[in-house]
Write a structure and sequence with these properties.
Layout lengths: L1 E6 L9 E5 L9 E11 L1 H7 L9 E2 L5 E8 L11 E4 L2 E3 L5 H4 L10 E2 L11 E5 L4 E2 L6 H4 L5 H11 L7 E5 L5 H10 L3 E5 L3 H9 L4 E3 L9 E6 L4 H9 L1 E9 L12 H4 L5 E4 L5 H14 L5 E5 L3 H9 L6 E5 L1 H4 L4
Parallel strand pairs: 11-12, 11-14, 12-13, 14-15, 15-16, 17-18
Antiparallel strand pairs: 1-2, 1-4, 3-5, 3-9, 3-18, 5-6, 6-10, 7-8
Helix pairs in contact: 4-5, 4-9
Bound molecules: zinc ion (2 copies).
């Protein structure tokens, strides 16, 4: 099969992936083989390619927003049938036995498997995944519209949960990329007022077209105090701007694996008053299944830019340079040719 492989260390920073022929993997105990229909590109893939997430193997196929169909079952797999449409997300598996798993916080598992990082992901024609971590996907819409739901969407949704958003709240979204443009659909469904602070005219226009109540620049403070905010930009300044926008008792959820620097802020002015600063780490299967069901109920359709697998490096670069409105999605050759 064709696969876009990251060999560590990446020889060329601007094109870290090598699209090459590799053997189709075989599903092991409890696993399935999926025929990939589409795989979303996530900013985390950039951090993996840049080595900012430390290499765990000599080479890996990135991609953790896989929409595909079950091609083959490994041993001891139940509840899944060949041909079924399924999704795979960042959380590829957990041990189920560590203290955090036992507390129901599998997103913080001590021994997690991360798709497209600790195991091969979906920048390929086929991918193997643990059957008990699959998310069942609907037959409609097309896979290119489903893939971005599987990290950008789920993580955005988890961020709203971490920020304890209630229906009707005033919520700030700082940054308006792949995650935020899906989270806003959930917020509108919950009748929230949504205040978007983001750089770039096209991202601001997308926010307006998706029903934002107010749109400003990246660190611009909304005109009203917010009940909660989610930051998506990997920027300490943005975190400070979000904190400064909160009412007393409000919550900022930081949705970024990296910040460019530790935010410096005035405790008395910005955190006093039981304001809270929280990080959002990974996801749970419950987040994934709840969000996919909600997305179907609302009819969420992402804004996508589709790249052929052979153009995987171009897709990464476009995301790195912030040239994509919405989400970038990679499709394998046969899918790109229009076959079912
Ligand atoms: Zn991701
Ligand atoms: Zn665990």
């Amino acid at each position: 099969m064709r696969a876009a492989v990251l060999h560590y260390p990446a020889p060329i920073a601007s094109s870290p992936l090598v699209v090459e022929n590799v053997p189709i993997p075989d599903p092991g105990d409890g696993e399935v083989l999926l025929k990939v229909e589409a795989c979303g590109v996530c900013r985390t893939d950039l951090h993996i390619a840049a080595g900012e997430l430390p290499p765990l193997r000599q080479a890996v196929v990135p991609g953790h927003q896989i929409a595909g169909r079950v091609e083959k079952l490994g041993a001891n797999v139940g509840g899944v049938r060949v041909g079924q449409r399924c999704g795979v997300s960042w959380l590829g598996g957990v041990d189920g036995t560590c203290p955090l798993c036992l507390r129901g916080r599998e997103n913080l598992c001590d021994h997690p498997t991360f798709t497209g990082y600790s195991v091969d992901g979906g920048y390929a024609e086929y991918a193997v995944a643990r059957a008990d971590f699959l998310v069942s996907l609907p037959e409609q819409p097309p896979a290119t519209d489903l893939a971005p739901l599987l990290c950008a969407g789920i993580i955005g949704f988890r961020s709203l949960r971490v920020a304890e958003v209630q229906p009707g709240d005033r919520v700030g979204l700082f940054g308006f990329g792949a995650s935020a443009h899906l989270a806003i659909e959930v917020l509108k469904f919950w009748n929230c007022e949504v205040y978007v602070s983001t750089r770039g005219r096209s991202h601001q226009q997308l926010a307006r077209s998706r029903g934002a109540t107010w749109v400003g620049d990246a660190t611009e403070r909304p005109p009203v105090p917010l009940d909660s905010a989610v930051t998506f930009a990997p920027s300490g300044d943005v975190v400070v701007a979000a904190l400064a926008s909160l009412r007393k008792g409000g919550i900022v959820a930081i949705n970024a694996i990296h910040l460019d620097r530790v935010p410096q802020f005035d405790y008395d002015r910005l955190l006093w008053g039981e304001r809270q600063l929280r990080s959002v780490a990974n996801m749970t299967r419950e987040d994934a299944r709840d969000f996919v069901a909600l997305a179907q109920q609302i009819g969420i359709r992402p804004r996508t830019t589709v790249f052929a697998l052979e153009q995987a490096n171009e897709a990464l670069l476009a995301v790195a340079e912030d040239r994509i409105d919405g989400a970038a999605v990679i499709v394998p050759p046969e899918q790109a040719a229009g076959n079912p």
